[in-house]
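Student: I would love a firmer grasp of how sequence relates to backbone shape in proteins. Thank you; the sequence and its tokens follow:
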Amino acid sequence: MTTAITKVNGQPVADEPRFDPVALAEAEAIRTRAAAEADALRTEAEGKADAEKIKATEEAERQRLANERNRLKLEKDQASHATFIAEQQRRKEAAEAAADKARKTEDEAEAKEAARAAEQRRSENTWKWGARGIYAVGLIIAAPIQFLHFWDGERPFLVAAPALLEGLALVSAFGAAWAVAHRRDVMPYRVGILLGAAIAATINIIGGRTNPDIGIDAGIIGAIASLGGPIILMAYEHGIAQKADGIVSWREKRDAEQKAKEEAAVREKAKQEKAEAEKQAASQKAAQEKRAEEEQQRKDADRKNDHLDVWEVADALRSARGSSVVTEQIWADAWYRVTGSKVVGVRPELEAASRAAQARMKAATELPVLGDLSQVGSQKAPRTKKDPDAPDGRRFNGGVPPLRRAGDALPYCDAAKKQAALEQADTVAANKTI
């Protein structure tokens, strides 16, 4: 038992401060906690600042990428629009060029048609008046000869005979023109023309031989004049009649025959090309069918050799469905019926091995890190190994054990807590598995 000394030489002894480990520990804990809280606040502020900075950087990068995409899209739209405008301009120019060409071709065709029509009118007029002129000249030559031949003082009425003879051919020619204009039969009028001309020519020949005042030369010329004029006029009327009736000429027939031959040659060539194309298509189809048959035989042989159980079911399905070969759909159905897998080629054993490999890969890539590289372990300072023979320090600390209170130890951060929970869950799962 100890006695406290309160007086020395009758004087009171002042109280001396004593060492208080609890107070020191509390003060140290308070300082440590304050420092930890300050560090935590500073770390949190730095983290928030870094997060804001990272967020701002990411936002700026995202905005830059968005602007870049918008710029590229705008450039693409502009390029597409420019291409569209150029294509529209090209089509417009091509349409205008085609229209100009068609208009020019039409104008040229119209000009050619107008020139041809003008030439036809000119040649028709020339031919018409030429024929009439020849007839008039023949009449002028033949009429005096006939007047001389029929002149008789005792019978003066015979002077009208030339008018009758030449008038037969002339009136018949007028009748032929009427028949052509009214689309009537022109043959009787042509017979009348030839008959009148022949009679007049015969009389001119007889007059030239019997009458010295006329002479044989004048008789022959008169005969030619009597025949020539009506024949030329009849030829003119014949052409007009053919044109009115739409009868083609020899030249038109020749052109039509030539065109028909060319078209027939084109059709024959197209027919030959079509036959060649059909023959080539048939040959290609036969080759494809042969390759398909060979490929089907190869598939059947491989499936029968490597998957006999599935092949038997597939062959039964083929027979039941009335198919000539085991199609891909039949094979897929048979595979599903036998193995239960909808993926052709995957059996249960392969599926199990694949899932096990996937589980191992997932465990290797997603489960927490254990051992020296663990994040939880990195939060704790390594312990110093103690000598087994060293005395227990708790027995030589002045008799007062150290006092621990809530909040003395530094709290773990959120990442360490999460990692510890993951490791604990992994340990529990491993124990259950065992």
User: Anything to note?
Assistant: The two ends are 61 Å apart (CA to CA). Residues 1-5 have pLDDT under 50 and may be disordered. The chain is about 75% helix and 0% strand. Residues 169 and 220 are 18 Å apart (CA to CA).
